[in-house]
Amino acid sequence: MAEPRSRAAGAEQPQVARRGGGAAVSPGEPGPANAAAEQKGRSAAERRRECVRRSTGGPEEMSRTTSLAAEEDASRNCEMYLPAYCNPSAMEISLDSEEDMYRDAEEIEREKMLLGCKTSSSEYKPSVAPEMDIMEYCRKEWRGNTPVAKRMRKGYEAVAQKFASIRRVRGDNYCALRATLFQALSQSTQLPTWLQSEDFTKLPENLLSKYDWIKQWQLKQKLGRKMGEISDEIKEYLMLLRKKWKYISEIKGPIEKQEACDKLFKNEEEEYSLYEALKFLMLNTAIELYNDDKNGRRVPVFSWLLFARDTSSNPCQLMHNHLNQIGHSGGLEQVEMFLLAYALQYTIQVYRLYKYSTDEFITLYPNDPEEDWPVVTLITEDDRHYNIPVRMCQETKL
């Protein structure tokens, strides 16, 4: 089977083991909730490694991931999250913000509950950080002389030929959805056709009438809902997605559009509701592809790979072992990036920095997109966490 279409860039560098392809976590297995008491005393590096460990699966993959994570930590400056401020209060604020960028939503929410307070949406820290010069970010993150650090710097230099700045995305297992949706909304000029359909908000009701197992869909840490409650709640999320997309796409000025996106991604309740909508659209797309294949219709190659896994041989397993885990105990695997692209009818272009100097450095999801699909661009260092490149260089525009 053909791999995703990619373009090579840069000189040859030593090979780096990739993160990704981890086994799924079953709904019954312990998740990040069991580690709440342990998180408080951990360093940022330890939390990052734990996040990687949770998002990967089996021991063999974990061994490769741990090796890469250890080398990354050695490559990065030991004070990579400490700005060079003399003011202790400013440093304290920066540290708090930095920690939140690498903590999942459940952990932050548990801490609020333990403290007996509820942060309002206006106080909620943005999940997409303000932009900064992309090479300045690279210099702060990758100061070592290991092969990994050298390759990352080369990768960032290549990206800097196209984009001037980067916006860091919160790493809470929603980062692939967050980065993709943020880019799609910030660039949108019209409501996608599939969002205009009258049947769009009827998806939950229609699918639940055919597939009883969807009532086990996991919504934002809440289990045991009745079928009607699930249908109504997902319908609300889909309506919110259409409302926000329509509102932002109608904003003409680029500055005003960006401000609207920033405001949306500071609203905790609305933001996570949109991710639930995206996950449900991914399930709907998976069901369509599965049925098309069973009925002898042509399907994209990634669909075979999606259902070839032992943990997702059908849409029900995909929901239980993968989609239900997104945002909780795992993020999106590569094959699920294809599914997200098909669900949104967007081409997702990703700079995979650890693949610099190979033909997979720039990867398209899907590898054979429709010509009229809009394109959003992301950056990843490991196929697990995604950030956003912004401010396309003038030469690139021309």
TrEMBL record:
Region (Linear diubiquitin binding): 141-142, 170-172, 382-384
GO MF entries: cysteine-type deubiquitinase activity
Keywords per UniProt: Cytoplasm
Catalytic residues in the record: D172, C175, H385
Protein name according to UniProt: Ubiquitin thioesterase otulin isoform X2
Site (described: Linear diubiquitin binding): E360
Record's compositionally biased regions (Basic and acidic residues): 39-53
Low complexity bias spans: 27-38
Protein's gene: OTULIN
Cleaved signal peptide residues: none
CDD domains noted in UniProt: OTU_OTUL
Membership in a protein family: Belongs to the peptidase C65 family. Otulin subfamily.
Single GO cellular component term: cytoplasm
Pfam families to which the protein is assigned, alphabetical: Peptidase_C101
Superkingdom of origin organism: Eukaryota
Region annotation Disordered: where it falls in the sequence: 1-72
Cellular location(s): Cytoplasm
GO terms under biological process: innate immune response; negative regulation of inflammatory response; protein linear deubiquitination; regulation of tumor necrosis factor-mediated signaling pathway
InterPro entries: FAM105, Otulin
